[in-house]
Specification:
This protein has one helix and eleven strands; from the N terminus they run H-E-E-E-E-E-E-E-E-E-E-E. By secondary structure, the protein is mainly beta. The radius of gyration is 16 Å and the shape is globular. The two termini are about 20 Å apart. The N terminus is likely disordered. Bound molecules: calcium ion (CA).
Length: about 160
Amino acid sequence: MKKKRLETVARVLAVLLLFEIGVHAQSVLWQENFDNVTAPALPIGWITDAGFETSTSVEGPDSGLNNLMHKGATFGHLDTPPLNLSQVTSASLVYNARRTGSYNYSALRILGSADGGITFPYIVVDAGEALPGEDSEYMPCSGQLPDDLIGLADVRFRFETQGG
Ligand SMILES: [Ca+2]
């Protein structure tokens, strides 16, 4: 019985937090800091399978108190609103992330959709590179957008996690 309770505590501590997600070309094309909604609500246009919510539990540097959170050992995904990349020739997805020690650094990957979120066949940031190797600190993460997403008018990104 005692052991089971310890496992539960470890899972509650498994937290992934993201703030200031943006797409950058030579300038910032799009950005979200999650500060214009009240936790646990997501901003308009973001779609999750209930695995993600916003939280004020750990403030991010220079991004206000509210941030995106995934907690626990469950699978989950979160899709961004549609983005218009028709005017760009190259771009990167840039974000800051923090994880607790029990949330595996390879649990998250970021996928891209060229059809408005119906399918996500493109890897933007692969598992093992989408979260900081070091836990308990916010760190910048990024991925170059694959050529197949450049110049399209209806692109979405999916944060897909196996949980911690
Ligand atoms: Ca924020």
